[in-house]
Specification:
The complex is a heterodimer of chains A (181) and B (93). Chain A is mainly alpha-helical and 181 residues long. Chain A contains seven helices and three strands. Chain B has 93 residues and is of the alpha+beta class.
């Protein structure tokens, strides 16, 4: 298993086996469902066009709360206003990222080639998936080893290993994008 | 500080003059390289500045990454949330 690399012609590629590809598809599907649960219908079409969601509230789910934090920590009212005017379009953007990843994967075999337009979506998707999983398994800066050592029958065991793999993928992609010093 | 000067500065005047700031907070998930990349890509900071800010976030728990009007800072905060960074805004004091 390798991370992202650059081809001789400078294209960003990722080599995956069937299992890894299936896992990425599954994760992208889950991110779609997570950021905007089905059915994806807008109550107010006009508000939807301009990206306003008057029903937006502080999310109960910690992973959602991490993806969409309060903008004004000391001002719940201003935070709610901000949420109503921004959250819907952020959710739509995250959904679009995950869908782009699904498209890239559906037209690829074991060699996944990212067009330059796909790169921001892949980066965004990898980060959203890591934020969602990392929050679910309560990751901290100190407990990586503890999570890595969990017995296989612990539900967090598998999630941690997926998280770890996504971290590796994201790091390899960012390193390709950062300009050399 | 003298308290004599501390009289009846109209709140509205002070409000107009005080810029707002965008803060990015440390979290255990975002990669240091990714945070650096975001600061370079969105704010167009050079790598040295982006890395300094990233290290501030990592070591001090937060960093001021931009300042301006409230509207501008709301735009920056929404953009940071789009990248998955934990950002907030407040009036500078």
């Amino acid at each position: 298993m390798g991370g992202f690399s650059k081809s001789l012609t400078g294209r960003v590629i990722l080599r995956v086996d069937e299992v890894e590809k299936g896992l990425l598809v599954q994760l992208a599907d889950q991110v779609c469902e997570f950021v905007i649960p089905e059915p994806r219908e807008h109550v107010d079409p006009l508000a939807a066009i301009v990206g306003i969601d008057m029903d937006a509230e502080f999310p109960d789910d910690p992973a959602m709360a991490r993806l969409f934090p309060d903008a004004y920590p000391d001002d719940p009212e201003a935070s709610l206003d901000f949420r109503r005017f921004t959250q819907r379009s952020l959710q739509e953007a995250k959904l679009a990222h995950a869908r782009t990843v699904l498209q890239t994967l559906s037209k690829s075999g074991e060699k996944v080639t990212l067009g330059s337009g796909d790169i921001p979506s892949w980066l965004g998707f990898l980060n959203d998936a890591r934020l969602a999983i990392g929050t679910r398994i309560d990751i901290t800066e100190e407990n990586h080893q503890e999570l890595a050592d969990l017995p296989e029958d612990d539900p967090r065991h598998g999630m941690f290993h997926v998280y770890d793999w996504l971290t590796y993928l994201q790091e390899s992609l960012v390193q390709l994008l950062l300009p050399h010093k | 500080m003298s308290s004599q000067l501390d009289v009846a500065l109209p709140e509205t005047v002070a409000d107009v003059d005080r810029p707002w700031i965008t803060l990015v907070w440390n979290d255990p998930i975002n990669l240091m390289s990714y945070v650096t990349f975001v600061f370079m890509e969105y704010f167009k900071y050079d790598r040295a500045k982006a890395e300094l800010l990233m290290l501030d976030v990592h070591e001090k728990g937060r960093a001021v990454v931009s300042n301006g009007t409230r509207e501008e800072m709301e735009r920056d905060v929404a953009a940071m949330h789009g990248y998955g960074l934990w950002a907030t805004l407040k009036k500078d004091d």
